[in-house]
Amino acid sequence: MAEEPQKAGVVPEDASELLEHALGCDRLSVRGLMAIPPWAEDPEVSRPWFRELRELRDLLQDETGHPLPELSMGMSHDFEIAIAEGATMVRVGTAIFGPRG
To answer: Which pTM value belongs to this model?
Structure first.
């Protein structure tokens, strides 16, 4: 992942350990993964990030046997690419409400 300082999360190498820990928590229900790629003017630049998240989700499902049906990825400028790569949730507030101001 991009490891941008303004964003937090887990790197793919640590995702399996985090998921195993979360699955052991009685009051947590893990439904999927989320990613926000680094901003790029060209939405196509986001495609590899979305593909990597989908592939990580598939790997984690195989490793744990736990279904992860949700992939939250894509925003107003790149949601079409995200959907093509398997997104089940997109964040399109700017497309609906306009830019923040």
So the answer is: 0.90
